Amino acid sequence: MNTIKNTEMNIIETDFQHFSLSIEDGIAWLCIDVKDEAANVISPDVVSELDRACDEVSKLSSTLGLKGLILFSGKPTGFIAGADVKKFREITDPEEARLFIKAGHAACKKLEDLAIPTLAMVEGFCMGGGLEVALACDYIIVDDAPSTKLSLPEVKLGIHPGFGGTVRSIRRIGVMQAMPMMLTGKNILPRQAAKMGLVDMCVPLRQLKSSAIQTILRKPEKKQAPKSAKLLELGPMRSLVAMQMRKEVASKAKQEHYPAPYALINLWEAHGSNSDEMYAAEAESVLQLGMTDTARNLARVFFLQNRLKALGDKSFFTPKHVHVIGGGVMGGDIAAWCAMQGMKVTIQDISTDALGRVMGRATKGFKRRYRKDKFRIMQAQDNLIPDLHGHGIPTADVIIEAIYENLEAKQSIFKEVETKAKADAIIATNTSSIPLSDIAKVMKKPQRLVGLHFFNPVFKMPLLEIVYTPKKTNVTVIKQAQSFGVHIGKLPLPVKSSPGFLINRILMPYILEGVTAQQEGIPVAVIDKAAVDYGMPMGPLELADTVGLDICLNVGRILADTVGVTLPTSLDSEVEAGKLGKKSGEGFYQWKEGKKQKATKDEWNGDIQQLQNRLIEKLTNESQKCLDEGIVEDADLLDAGVIFGTGFAPFRGGPMNAISESTGD
Ligand code: NAI
User: Fold this and answer.
1) How far apart are CA 258 and CA 270, in angstroms?
2) pLDDT, tens digit, for every residue of 176-191?
3) What pLDDT shows up at residue 8?
């Protein structure tokens, strides 16, 4: 039973664990603050309380005559982060899963059917089930800060919205806006959300509450997709639109690997004109998808990503100033990336031309990332400072060396850096192949040197290998490096210093097996297709061309003993002939303006499955070897590294997971 305590701000007494309800100036304020969680996540308990909270509001409304309901979050982290993936993953009984989905549908319907105006007041992220709940309200008002993000990212977990969000998003913004949002799972920023009608308004934080109250009192017309969008729901048009969407999805993901986007299109094509039917079919479809290996493995990837993030404790180290030595391909991009993360960056190079190129490329990168946001572009530009003579070294918190791959040159840098750097600064190298202990030999305190191995292209690759020498590298330095990784938005993975570290070592046998197969006469396009069909983002030969055949040859030589391979002779001859891959315009493929040209021959009579096994086994076997040698701590970290460092088929949950699934362990 509820009782009203005071007149201005009446707190309603309930037995809720995750919600609290109060009444202020005739409006019910429902605060979601999920117990024992840093962020609001939706579990069966939360759904059941939301349902009961709606009953409570309904009762209060009929006794007190409420003007409306405002739903908001009590967490500083955001509105609602979506379903509780951990709890959802624990549900293995299909009947239990069905009950959860049905309960979610019922609670959202109850919220939607309340007789008073309802509004979601959103500050921070509003994702998945959180946005579905917001969509069940009459109005959505959001804070206009860039930290506010809205999305329906379920497809990334191998499912699609399952609390009625497929119907409500299409009803609100039309199929041509709602479907791409659900098919890609992309974040929508506040201004864009307001422009597309997903939210009613985006306002500065200080006006959020007053705008919410005004909206409840004024009761403007509810947002709805324009009539023209409704035309697309008519039978024949619907089939055409669905066909086009299927084609677009097929260019990015195969149905047998990623069934969710196809199921979503089928759902709309079959029931798009009938909401009741679509609600029911949505629940069934999401249940089916939830049981697939893809959904299970994508949930695994989600946890692996969180595990990597958790390896870096942000409070352990506070980097403000990064100094990068060497402004080439890697150093330039590392500097630009750190400047974008809000750090002051000094970039040092012996060549003024190189520094000029860094600034030009960085500005292009900022503009691509921030589009028309001139303020943020300017901010990132201001953070990046050319520093021909290395004046930044004594004040930097992190010093990253990224000059060319040469032991003596790197040693002479560190000899000097060590004498000038602050006592607690991170001193790091981006070397891709030189053992850390060889470089550190010349240092007075070799235990200070750590590897920060970034991947190319820096803007796109999420993984950062934190390379250390066991029993030598200072443990605090390793922890600082992990913390730095998270500060700059990368996923840090501690890796033992040994040839190729983790990622290059695992990729090399895969690349070399591709080259060997090509040398045996199997067409280039057939080899790459076999790997892509498995789910690799790129075949071994396209990857070799992209990395550069000279670099492959060099890394191959360094790794030949460790990996136990003989280098295919064709790699040597290609490099000798000046065919270096993408950068020279010719390698295994022809390249024009950075684009791969179609290979002429793509037919072969051999056993494709056998070819695929042969390529992938090289990669999985090397993964097993790395694990046995303790290059990373455990199988999950190995899978995480390979997924985020190579793009290895996420729906397979990583190479070690794929091995255990194929052997049934
Ligand atoms: P790069 O050849 O593009 O750039 C090297 C830069 O260092 C040049 O601008 C050069 O002028 C400058 N430099 C040379 N000596 C210097 C000195 N004493 N002081 C200051 N600047 C100096 O090389 P890239 O590709 O950027 O590689 C740099 C490092 O990163 C290497 O250790 C490489 O193994 C590693 N790496 C490279 C990757 C790639 O894909 N290119 C990927 C990951 C690591």
Assistant:
1) 20
2) 999 999 999 999 999 9
3) 59
Does the structure show a pLDDT above 50 at 4? no
Q: Quote the pLDDT of residue 474.
A: 98
- Average predicted confidence (pLDDT) for the chain: 95
Alpha carbons within 13 A on the beta-carbon side of 330: 20
**Taking the domain 312-496, which CATH number applies?**
3.40.50.720
The residue ranges of every structural domain in the chain are 2-297, 312-496, 503-630
* pLDDT over 50 at 5, yes or no: no
Question: Ligand 1 centre and the CA of 423: distance in Å?
Answer: 25
* Model pLDDT for residues 55-73, shown as the tens digit of each residue: 999 999 999 899 999 999 9
Which of 123, 465, 574, 622 is flagged as catalytic? 465
Instruction: Specify which residues 29 forms β-bridges with.
Output: 22, 70
pLDDT tens readout for residues 77-86: 899 999 998 8
Whether residue 10 lies in the annotated active site:
no
Topology (CATH level 3) of domain 2-297:
2-enoyl-CoA Hydratase; Chain A, domain 1 (3.90.226)
What pLDDT is attached to residue 624? 97
Long-range contacts of 224-233 (CB under 8 A, 24+ apart): 224/171, 224/172, 225/170, 225/171, 225/172, 225/173, 225/174, 225/175, 225/177, 225/197, 226/174, 229/174, 229/175, 229/176, 230/174, 232/174, 232/175, 232/176, 233/175, 233/272, 233/273
Token pair listed for 559: 């790794």
Who's near 572: CB < 8 A, 6+ residues apart? 553
Residue 461 tokens read as 């690759």
Q: Determine the 3-state secondary structure of 250 from DSSP.
A: helix
Point out the least confidently predicted range of 221-235, 263-277, 392-406, 523-537: 221-235
550: CA distance to ligand 1 center in Å? Answer: 15
Query: Residue 369: which of 322, 323, 337, 331 has the closest Cα?
Result: 337
Query: What are the structure tokens assigned to 216, written together?
Result: 């409840």
Question: Domain 503-630 carries which CATH code?
Answer: 1.10.1040.50
Token readout for 2 is: 């509820």
- Asked if the domains 312-496 and 503-630 are classified in one and the same CATH topology, the answer is no
Active site residue 432: yes
Å from CA of 236 to ligand 1 middle:
57
Active-site residue among 105, 453, 542, 657?
453
